[in-house]
């Protein structure tokens, strides 16, 4: 531990700056300007250099690449699909859920769409929230509420809530898809302008 700290100090900015000024002090000694006080001059210049050197910057945290986050999200989406395959839903909600899962699968498919999505942190967050939280919560709430409606007839059927929730989630994912499409359209337009300006 102490040895690693010693080697870290040898490579530090403070030591390098102090050493550079210490060499200047040796230069003053060889030219005769430091005289008999050359050790004090060299040590003083080294100390001054170590004091004026900028502090060491801590290394940046190593966060996962956005594409790695999407790979993890794709694995979670596969788990979600397995879960949804075991749940019985009414036909209208089942159709809505199928449309939503197809849209999510298209957004998470490897390729250029995923690369465009990786550049949009808010989009990645919205997609992650939909896959990991919103869809499982909506389906689980339906399954639980369906059991309770047997005990309290006449209440609003849980199918309506599930259909509305899935419609809202699908609308949110369609908005994300539209924004990604607009990013690509702007990119194409800017490339066209670049080519026109170049010629």
Assembly type of the chains comes to single chain
Distance between the termini: 62 Å
Counting DSSP E segments of at least 2 residues, the number of strands comes to 0
- Specify the overall morphology: elongated
Give a quick account of the main beta sheet: strands, pairing sense, barrel closure: none
Give the low-pLDDT segments.
Answer: none
How many helices? The count is 8
Strand content: under 5%
Helix content, binned percent: over 70%
Structural class, judged by helices and strands? mainly alpha
Question: What letter string, H or E per element, gives the SSE order?
Answer: HHHHHHHH
Q: Give the overall pLDDT as a whole number.
A: 87
Please state the CA-atom Rg, rounded to the nearest Å: 32 Å
Transmembrane segments: 21-48
Keywords: Membrane, Transmembrane, Transmembrane helix
Give your account of this protein's structure:
The chain is elongated. The relative contact order is 0.08. 80% of the residues lie in helices and 0% in strands. The chain starts with a helix and ends with a helix. The chain is an all-alpha fold and 199 residues long. The chain is built from 8 helices and no strands. The mean pLDDT is 87.
């Amino acid at each position: 531990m102490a040895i690693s700290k010693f080697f870290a100090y040898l490579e530090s900015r403070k030591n390098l700056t102090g050493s550079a000024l210490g060499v200047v002090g040796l230069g003053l000694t060889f030219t005769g300007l430091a005289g008999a006080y050359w050790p004090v001059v060299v040590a003083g210049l080294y100390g001054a250099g170590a004091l004026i050197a900028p502090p060491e910057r801590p290394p940046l945290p190593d966060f996962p690449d956005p594409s790695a986050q999407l790979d993890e999200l794709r694995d979670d989406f596969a788990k979600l699909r397995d879960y949804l395959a075991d749940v019985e839903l009414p036909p209208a909600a089942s159709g809505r859920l199928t449309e939503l899962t197809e849209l999510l699968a298209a957004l998470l498919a490897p390729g250029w769409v995923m690369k465009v999505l990786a550049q949009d942190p808010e989009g990645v967050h919205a997609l992650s929230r939909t896959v990991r939280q919103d869809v499982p919560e909506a389906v689980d709430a339906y399954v639980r509420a369906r059991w309770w409606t047997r005990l309290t007839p006449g209440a609003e059927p849980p199918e309506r809530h599930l259909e509305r929730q899935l419609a809202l989630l699908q609308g949110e994912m369609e908005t994300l898809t539209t924004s990604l499409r607009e990013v690509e359209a702007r990119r194409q337009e800017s490339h066209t302008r670049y080519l026109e300006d170049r010629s």
